Amino acid sequence: MKVVMMVKDILSEVDGDDIFLLANNKKVSSIKELYVLLQRLDDKIFYFHVNEEKNDFYNWVRDVYQDKKLADDLLWCTNKESMIFCLKSRIEEAERASLFNLLPSIEVQNTKSKKQQTSTPLNTMIDIDQLRKKSEEKLVKQQKLSKFSNIKERFNKLQAKKIRKESSVDDTLQKIRGVYGL
């Protein structure tokens, strides 16, 4: 039940003090809006909000939407592309989950209207439990893929950091050799 509440929050807009104000004075009132804006946001503005000292998008998602999973994913994002990917994955996941939660009520309405019109046997209608199980399986598969992608992205970042350190050491050695003529 807690997941349903988080899904609704993720897909909803915020107002008042919860709206995120970008450095260029544009207002962001939903995760979807942030996703769309990031795709065309100037790098200078992005790096004003995301740098070694802070990650404003992480703070906003954590404090306003209270979605720990998305906030933790955004904390690791150091560029627009990775942040866009994380936002898109979470939005799609939330939309699938919200659609899944709407199915039983829609099916009940359809069943009632079918009963009134014709006498269709119940065994020919869609099995809600089977549909629910398939949806859950797809959601679990997507979550595993998302976790794998996050792990892969973190691994790549660590490799890049290691390479930068190694090249920094190599540069320092080159300078020392140049100074001492080695």
Question: Can you describe what's shown?
Answer:
The chain has one domain. The chain has seven helices and two strands. It has helices spanning 2-11, 31-40, 43-49, 56-65, 68-75, 80-117, 128-180, and strands spanning 20-21, 27-28. It has a two-stranded antiparallel ribbon with strand order 1-2. β1 (20-21) and β2 form a beta hairpin. α4 (56-65) packs antiparallel against α5 (68-75) and α6 (80-117) packs antiparallel against α7 (128-180). The radius of gyration is 24 Å and the shape is flat. The termini are far apart.
What is the succession of H and E elements? HEEHHHHHH
Ends distance: 68 Å
Share in β-strands: under 5%
Portion of residues within helices: over 70%
Q: Which consecutive residue ranges, at least 5 long each, have pLDDT under 50?
A: 1-8, 103-112
How many domains make up the coordinates? Answer: 1
Q: Main sheet, how many strands, which sense, barrel?
A: 2 strands, antiparallel
Shape descriptor reads flat
Q: How much is the average pLDDT?
A: 79
Number of helices: 7
For the biggest β-sheet, the strand order reads 1-2
- Helix/strand structural class: mainly alpha
Radius of gyration: 24 Å
List keywords for this structure.
182 residues, mainly alpha, two-stranded antiparallel sheet, 7 helices, 2 strands, flat, disordered N terminus
